[in-house]
Amino acid sequence: MRARVVNDLDYDAWSEFVNRHPHGSIFQSPHMYRVWQATRHNTPFLLAIVEGEGRIRAVLQGVIQKEYPGVLGAMTARAIVWGGPLVEEEDDDELLLDMLFHQYRLQVGKRVIYSQFRNLWPQDRMKPLMARLGFQYEDHLDIHVDLSKTEQELWNDVHSKRRNEIRRARREGTEVRELTAREQVLQAYGILQEVYGRARLPLHHSSLFEAAFDVLGPEGLVRFFGAFFERRLIGVIVVLCCNGTVYDWYAGSLPEFYHKYPNDLLPWHVFLWAREAGYRRFDFGGAGKPVKAYGVRDYKKKFGGRFENFGRFEKVHKPFFMRVGIIGFTLWKLLRKK
User: Is-contact 287 293, C-beta < 8 A?
Assistant: First the structure.
């Protein structure tokens, strides 16, 4: 039957395709598409291949992110794809990929400065195709925690210093509770603003977290956990939940409460919650490049888990604007430092 590329899918059929795909994740789901739709300065895109009366053969979803609206936004536009594309692994899957990326170049590549595909599983089969399409492969680490282990095994995998800090957090009176009200989510966003501001890193508009609360929350696809000390919210971790995996999405705490160890207690609490809820894996997210020192990686590794190197594919579509963007981001970070 003749296959064709479309930009719209039936919501339920799309969700079913992602859920039954062996590499399906929330990042390729229609739920996440709706979240990006409701997020300021972000435009989601969908490229899917359907056959016959609507059989879905492939899905590629991502988001075009901008720092600003208008002309400045066009100069900062980049396309980010997590865990995609998802393609039925059959004899003609390479033809399907060719069809997808031909339309990607026409529909997305012309609108952004660069594209980045953040892999969530080994992509050895994709490397020749992506190289042919002009994408550069770069090693990039992730950390996975096996939640099928017993609680004692998970505890033994945690670094001894980290275990002591988790115990101390509890002795100091730090508690973890799930955030279930919009007001709490916005309060948590204020903490993340401070964290990202100190690190001189851009943070999505609060509409992302409000949309996640509204769209993903009722489906159980997002959870907000807060660390409290004497009724005050001092730290937060936001996780996405889908197909047996819990993804570390955003986390941070107030520096004046580091001595209450919220950053130690929060991940451990999520491990136990996720294990009890039947999830098989905790994806700790990006751990940087293998050859480059990275403090975040050192912090995450002390919770156990194993390194995975799924890497990333990146292509610069507009080299001049890419150079301008790098200079602009450097200046922005310098101004934030003052």
Answer: no
